[in-house]
Model the fold of this input.
Amino acid sequence: MLPDSESLLLLVTREMPFGKHKGTLIADLPGNYLNWFAREGFPPGEIGRLLALMHELDHNGLSDLLKPLRARVPGGVRK
Done:
């Protein structure tokens, strides 16, 4: 299943709402943090879905797909 464009845009605009990396854009979370969630379980709801998507992109070396979106949203629209 392919991610929709809105989900990809959220990765470069939505901040991590809790934990060690609170305030960090989801697209900027370190791989080891995403791997920890993959092992321990993603949280429920939208944040879990976005973390799982970012983990897939990071794990498969596809994070560069977000570069055009980052350019489209200078500085990120943080929510």
Q: What stands out?
A: The mean pLDDT is 90. Residues 26 and 66 are 11 Å apart (CA to CA). The radius of gyration is 12 Å. The chain has one domain: 5-72.
